Amino acid sequence: MASRPDANDGGPRNVATSDGGSRPDREEFDKLLLSDDPAAAVRQALDDGWLDALIPEIRREMDVPQRTRYHHLSVLEHSLDTLSRMPGRLDERLAGLFHDIGKRRMTTIKERNGEEQYIGHAGAGAAMTREILRRLGYERELVERVSRWIARHMDLHMAARDGRSEKARRKLLGRIGDDLEVLKRLQLADLASMAPEIARDKAREALDYHRLLSASAAQPVSERQPPR
């Protein structure tokens, strides 16, 4: 398991609070996310307790099981695995960590089979993430970027299943714009952390849809179907 940041001085740097106490510095959290093994680093920080002091929502909202055939890991472990598969950019790793934080609050049970479902979790998670990142003092542009990615992280999942027509693809491309490549990476990282028997089929479906999107994006404007 990875050692926590600043191991040579005994632990994370703390900053003073208004009541005279102290809390870990946000910069230490950034170091965890950008480390070579961010999942292990976050687990260690949770074990040590200091990450609970900085972001109590991680354990409170994410350390819950997922009772669905699509997942074999808890929300927390799934999110840590997704985080570890994202590129070493702070904004993308924040999105990987927090993309499913809204699931606990949005959990309902399907009557037909008793499985959990998480309708609306992307929007709920985006709002929660925005609040957390603002509280930690991240710059506004990063907060809005990460929150937007989380709000949209189900778009490609749903489109790969339901939106394969040229018209649907063009509509999706217009909606997500420059976020497309990040959302592709987040989708593939998310899928890779699902139950193995589900992950394989869903990854093939996603990559096939990515190819269709690339073809639509490359199509000359003169050849595109007019909107109806």
Structural summary, described in words:
- The chain is mainly alpha-helical and about 230 residues long.
- The chain folds into two domains: about 1-5 and about 20-55, no CATH class; about 55-215, Hypothetical protein af1432.
- It is built from 13 helices and four strands.
- The strands form two sheets. Strands 1-2 form a two-stranded antiparallel sheet.
- Helix 5 (about 75-85) runs antiparallel to helix 6 and helix 12 packs antiparallel against helix 13 (about 195-220).
- It is globular and about 50 Å long.
- The protein starts with 13 loop residues before the first strand and ends in a 10-residue tail after the last helix.
Compact description:
By secondary structure, the chain is mainly alpha-helical. The chain has 13 helices and four strands.
Largest sheet: 2 strands, antiparallel
Q: How is the CATH topology of the largest domain named?
A: Hypothetical protein af1432
Shape: globular
Mean pLDDT metric: 87
The CATH C-level class name of the largest domain: Mainly Alpha
What is the domain total for the residues?
A: 2
Total beta-strand segments: 4
- Fraction in helix: 55-70%
Number of helices: 13
Low-pLDDT residue intervals, each spanning 5 or more residues? 1-10, 15-22
What fraction strand? under 5%
Give the ordered list of helices and strands.
EEHHHHHHHEEHHHHHH
Give the C-alpha Rg: 19 Å
Distance between the termini: 55 Å
Q: What spatial order of strands do you see in the largest sheet?
A: 1-2
- Structural class per helix/strand content? mainly alpha
**CATH architecture heading of the largest domain:** Orthogonal Bundle
